[in-house]
Hints:
Order of helices and strands: EEEEHHHHH
Domain CorA-like transporter: 2-139
Protein name: CorA-like transporter domain-containing protein
Number of helices: 5
Organism: Fusarium oxysporum
Pfam family, one: CorA-like
Number of strands: 4
InterPro entries: CorA-like_dom
Amino acid sequence: MAAFGEKRFPRxxxxxxxxxxxxxxxTGSLSSFECSYLLKYIEKRDDARxxxxxxxIRHTLIYQKVSHEESKLFHILxxxxxxxxxxxxxxxxxRSGESSSFIEDxxxxxxxxxxxxxxxxxxxxxxLDEEINNLFKRVIMAGVEPDKLNEFDTxxxxxxxxxxxxxxxxxxxxxxxxxxxxxxxxxxFQKKIRDLETLPFQASSQADxxxxxxxxxxxxxxxxxxxxxxxxxxxxxxxxxxxxxxxxGLTFQCGFHVLTCRSSETLCQ
Length: 269
């Protein structure tokens, strides 16, 4: 819960967490399963100014206790993604106001939460890729036709482009970090589910639910792997363009220094 305390640095946190506890009855069957974990996700910012980065990195806490002895489910859900809120709002109760089949299977909550992470993540990577592509065009133009650009504007714009690339690269590194953290959380969760599969169940439907959960988690993990590759590729492009911008900045700075020296000599004469 300390992850949601008041902080004075960027919204996302460079950590994750997973914990669980399994209790077995005297007959060897599953008595209760308790788990808690953090998930990173991307959400649009309501306070984003025009032209600024509209995306924000956030995290959610999912806590669940499944008690077969009491036939009850206990949940603590903190700062859920908007997509998950909508799904839960329409799935928990049926039209008659009674509990739906969604909550009869405790694995549905985890599938909903893990599935919600990837879509906005792709949107954020696409946004960063587009911003880097726009900077690439400006950097290339400055290098190909520098004689058409004002010396003062060229030096200033190249410096600004370099700073923008550093910011976008930092965002990509943070995206890569949250994908890796979510993947680690997935792996921990999958390991616990496999441990549960070794226990005898009171109903065959429970075993089917765990098998379905594992299959879906494997698919989500594959999607994370593709997202990680995509973000890493965009970061490499940003590094290459940043090197070009840095080189052009030095070139323009040297040219401006020579021009200033010549102007001073002319003035003295």
